[in-house]
Amino acid sequence: MRDATLVFLIKGNPVSEILLGYKKAGFAQGKFNGFGGKVEAGETIECAAVRELEEEASVKVAQHDLAEMARLTFFFPTMPEWDQVVYVFLARRWQGEPVESDEMQPAWYKVSDIPFASMWQDDPHWLPRVLAGQRVRAWFTFGQDNETVIEARVEEWQTWPDL
């Protein structure tokens, strides 16, 4: 199972806006999502999150400005090579303005207008909780179409266990 990252830039306290990217190519093409991707060999989760955000949106964030809010485990029984653990971060501080890349087209959304119908089907299960300040861990199993969530478990995670 591979490790991956997701970073969401946010504005407001409580959160009023979120930066999403429309995926133009590759895995999850045609969906809105946070910015992130695979963790490379020898790279920490946080370094991968910083690198992916800069590659996909030309925005720089310091590692200490990343708040780890979720750990999501995804199972794709018909595509086990897609199985992954995704580390989700929120960031309130960054440098630069989001710029479209070959892979992602960034856009700000009010929290009330998040386009869940154009996102992964797991997102409504956990993203609102994270944006409300709750740390969560979750497990999702997808059906044969690799789109439909057939099993979901989300729980609040006050402290992270030693792994």
If you had to describe this structure to a student in words, what would you say it looks like?
With 163 residues, the protein is mainly β. It has one domain: Alpha-Beta Complex (Nucleoside Triphosphate Pyrophosphohydrolase), CATH 3.90.79.10. The chain contains 2 helices and 8 strands. Strands 1, 2, 3, 4, 5, 6, 7 and 8 form an 8-stranded mixed beta sheet that branches. The chain starts with a strand and ends in a 7-residue tail after the last strand.
List keywords for this structure.
163 residues; mainly beta; Nucleoside Triphosphate Pyrophosphohydrolase; 8-stranded mixed sheet; 13% helix; globular
List the helices and strands and how they pair.
Blueprint: E1 2-11, E2 17-23, E3 32-33, H1 45-57, E4 66-75, E5 84-91, E6 104-110, H2 123-131, E7 136-142, E8 149-156
Parallel strand pairs: 1-5, 4-7
Antiparallel strand pairs: 1-2, 2-3, 2-6, 4-5, 7-8
The gist of it:
The protein has 163 residues and is mainly β. The protein is 13% helix and 36% strand.
Please summarize the sheet with the most strands. Answer: 8 strands, mixed
Spatial extent as radius of gyration: 15 Å
Mean pLDDT: 94
Query: What top-tier CATH class fits best?
Result: Alpha Beta
- Stated plainly, the CATH topology is called Nucleoside Triphosphate Pyrophosphohydrolase
Q: How would you describe the shape?
A: globular
How many structural units, i.e. domains?
1
Looking at the overall shape, the CATH architecture is Alpha-Beta Complex
Could you estimate the helical fraction of the residues in percent? 10-25%
